[in-house]
Amino acid sequence: MTAEIISGTEIRKEILAELEVEVKEIKEKYGKPPGLVTILVGSSPASISYVTLKVKTAISLGFHEIQDDQPEDISEADLLALIEKYNNDDDIHGILVQLPLPKHIDDKKILNAINPDKDVDAFHPVNVGRLMIGGEEAIFAPCTPAGIQEMIVRSGTETSGAEVVVVGRSNIVGKPIAIMMAQKGVGANSTVTIVHTRTKDLAAHCKRADILIVAAGVPNLVKPEWIKPGSTVIDVGVNRVGMNEKTGKAILRGDVDYDEACKIAGKITPVPGGVGPMTITMLMKNTVKSARMHLSK
Ligand code: NAD
Predict the structure, then answer these.
(1) Spatial distance between the Cα atoms of 202 and 199, rounded to a whole number of angstroms
(2) Closest CA relative to residue 17, chosen from 286, 291, 284, 230
(3) Ligand 1 centroid vs 200 CA: distance in angstroms?
(4) Which of 117, 118, 119, 121 is flagged as catalytic?
(5) pLDDT 10s digits, 5-37
(6) What is the topology classification, in CATH, of domain 142-278?
(7) Which residues pair with 268 in a beta bridge?
(8) Which of 35, 94, 179, 242 could form a disulfide with 287 if both were Cys (CB 3.0 to 4.6 A apart)?
(9) Distance 2 CA to ligand 1 centre (A)
(10) At what angle do helices 143-154 and 8-30 cross, to 10 degrees?
(11) Residue ranges of the domains in the chain?
């Protein structure tokens, strides 16, 4: 068997095309586009490249986009005041603070200051709680788990009653995707197991999975014999395993032994080009949802 590739690059294109239509509708109906502010503190090259991608995508969709760059030595009080300014700005529907922040600033304090109804990253404890309650309450899902669920659904994988095994229990991937897959609703209704570093027999759990979601950050952690034939494998891991001497670019691998897994799985996401492109896409989707919510009030 050769697994069908679930391409994040392709699904991203589909979703962005849908969002473009929605943005036009919003502009026509309410006279203004979705508004997103991206706040970047300092000049870490990785953060700059993430923010640049977010800004480019937002602009290409026709958002009102503000890139608000702040110096490395901004005080916590000034950053809190800046967030309050955007909380009260009716043209802004999504506030994104690029992490990590410099050491003298408490990340939690900053994230908790964002109005939960503009928290398009969905890291605010109110949104974590809403996600737990599910249904209509869950306004925003965190972007990487939302992207994973979207890939599962759009690949035509049946989730209702499926055995889902999530490797990893982080707050940004493992825990939220496990909750989301177990909720009532479309693309969910699954029976979920979370496994982690203290799990006794990782292989035995993985082997049962109709849908295996791996977010451990360990290259080649999942061996081909751990994969149930015909299952859907979502590899969230992004690991730098070397450097391409010709291009000077990092060589990236996931957490799954991809080449061998392709011979066993029914569907699989590649790394790169799998979950990676979905995260920013879902940030855009959350911002469009937020704009509708705010503008229809
Ligand atoms: P994390 O380090 O916060 O959490 C990793 C989890 O995996 C932990 O809960 C740990 O218990 C578990 N784990 C680690 N080694 C294990 C092992 N040997 N056996 C079983 N469980 C193990 O990481 P994270 O933030 O959740 O990210 C996980 C991976 O996903 C990373 O490679 C990260 O780069 C990637 N990631 C990708 C995207 C994206 O593509 N958009 C987004 C977020 C994270």
Answers:
(1) 6
(2) 284
(3) 18
(4) 121
(5) 999 999 999 999 999 999 999 999 999 999 999
(6) Rossmann fold (3.40.50)
(7) 5, 233
(8) 94
(9) 26
(10) 110
(11) 30-120, 142-278
